Amino acid sequence: MRIVALAGGVGGAKLSDGLAQILPAADLTVIVNNGDDFEHLGLVVCPDLDTVCYTLAGLANPETGWGRLGETFHILESLHLLGGPDWFKLGDLDLATHLERSRRLREGQPLSQITHDFCRTWNVPQAILPMSDQPVRTMVQTADQGELPFQEYFVHRQCEPVVKGFRFAGIEAARPAPGVLEAIERSDAVVICPSNPWVSINPILGLDGIRPALSRKRVVAISPIIAGKTVKGPAAKMYAELGIQPSALAVAQHYGSLLSAFILDVQDSPLANNIEIRTCLTDILMNSRMDRRRLAQDVLDCIQRLS
Amino acid sequence: MRIVALAGGVGGAKLSDGLAQILPAADLTVIVNNGDDFEHLGLVVCPDLDTVCYTLAGLANPETGWGRLGETFHILESLHLLGGPDWFKLGDLDLATHLERSRRLREGQPLSQITHDFCRTWNVPQAILPMSDQPVRTMVQTADQGELPFQEYFVHRQCEPVVKGFRFAGIEAARPAPGVLEAIERSDAVVICPSNPWVSINPILGLDGIRPALSRKRVVAISPIIAGKTVKGPAAKMYAELGIQPSALAVAQHYGSLLSAFILDVQDSPLANNIEIRTCLTDILMNSRMDRRRLAQDVLDCIQRLS
Question: A-chain residues within 8 Å CB-CB of B106?
Answer without folding.
Answer: 42
